[in-house]
């Protein structure tokens, strides 16, 4: 009786055999034998997956995908490339990304922009894990564009927030502010999302404090006009108190206000990083005196 590995190998060889026996006309029109070869490759891939033989699984799924492209089964080809990518992730990141790009190209050509966006986001996450931040941000932005095409503002804003936050951590505050304000505008146009806009304006104001606190009052005024939920909020009050402590170069007061706010609403890692950068601005001014 065959074990799983023997069956996986046999199905792979059956696929190759089906292809090698094709006539000229069959190769042009994609026939039963090509369909059978695809089926054998996919069966082989599933068995190799069970065995966690990721390299072989990736190879046979990619072979199935190439055949599906040749006979015009684009959507199925996209799915096969995704299967190949999922297996490749286990041993070769670049190959996984290559297969995902192949899948995206197919989904986008078919108008499946939500699916294309999903895999742009997957690529972004892979780059992010690999500390290739610049490449990751481009993929998040592309995912956001496709999500916007499909009117999926929740998914688009999630991607853009990641891009904005990463730009702030990289000290590209101008880009971060622009993106936070852009997301806030999307949120204000949605009854479901509008109450989140004040969080984005809060993040934008903190980024501005990293640059130049002199511009913050004008920014706050603009945010209050756009977003009634921001005016009078704890977030607005906190920004105003930080501005005062920065104006006076009062590090003790700055620390007190941060601790007081954090005791009620815990700051995430991102907020802590940005607040530390603002704190360093004050420390720098004090050191110069």
UniProtKB/TrEMBL annotation:
Membrane topology, record value: Peripheral membrane protein
Pfam families noted in UniProt: SNAP
CDD domains named among the record's database cross-references: SNAP
A GO MF label: soluble NSF attachment protein activity
One Gene Ontology cellular component: vacuolar membrane
Chief localisation class: membrane
Keywords: Coiled coil, ER-Golgi transport, Membrane, Protein transport, TPR repeat, Transport
Coiled-coil region: 123-150
Signal peptide per UniProt: none
Source organism, top-level taxon: Eukaryota
TPR repeat intervals: 117-150
Localization per record: Membrane
GO biological process: intracellular protein transport; SNARE complex disassembly
Protein function: Required for vesicular transport between the endoplasmic reticulum and the Golgi apparatus.
Protein family according to the UniProt entry: Belongs to the SNAP family.
Annotated protein name in UniProt: Uncharacterized protein
Higher taxonomy: Eukaryota, Metazoa, Ecdysozoa, Arthropoda, Hexapoda
């Amino acid at each position: 009786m065959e074990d799983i590995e023997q069956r996986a190998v046999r199905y792979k060889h059956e696929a190759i055999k089906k292809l090698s026996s094709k006539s000229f006309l069959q190769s042009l029109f994609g026939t039963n034998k090509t369909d059978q070869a695809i089926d054998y490759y996919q069966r082989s891939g599933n068995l190799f997956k069970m065995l966690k033989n990721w390299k072989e699984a990736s190879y046979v799924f990619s072979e199935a995908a190439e055949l599906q492209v040749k006979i015009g089964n684009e959507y199925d080809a996209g799915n096969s490339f995704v299967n190949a990518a999922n297996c490749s992730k286990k041993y070769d990141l670049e190959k996984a990304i290559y297969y995902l790009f192949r899948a995206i190209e197919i989904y986008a050509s078919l108008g499946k922009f939500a699916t294309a966006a999903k895999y742009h986001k997957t690529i972004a996450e892979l780059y992010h894990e690999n500390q290739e931040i610049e490449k990751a941000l481009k993929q998040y932005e592309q995912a956001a564009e496709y999500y916007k095409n499909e009117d999926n503002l929740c998914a688009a804003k999630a991607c853009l927030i990641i891009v904005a936050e990463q730009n702030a951590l990289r000290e590209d505050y101008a880009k971060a502010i622009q993106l936070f304000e852009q997301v806030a505008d999307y949120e204000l146009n949605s009854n479901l999302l509008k109450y989140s806009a004040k969080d984005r304006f809060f993040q934008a104001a903190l980024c501005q404090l990293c640059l130049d606190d002199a511009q913050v009052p004008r920014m706050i005024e603009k945010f209050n006009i756009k977003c009634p939920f921001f005016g009078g909020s704890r977030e607005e009050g906190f920004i105003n108190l930080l501005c005062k402590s920065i104006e006076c170069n009062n590090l003790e007061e700055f620390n007190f206000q941060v601790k007081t706010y954090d005791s009620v609403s815990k700051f995430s890692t991102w907020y802590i990083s940005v607040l530390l950068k603002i704190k360093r601005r004050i420390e720098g001014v004090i050191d110069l005196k």
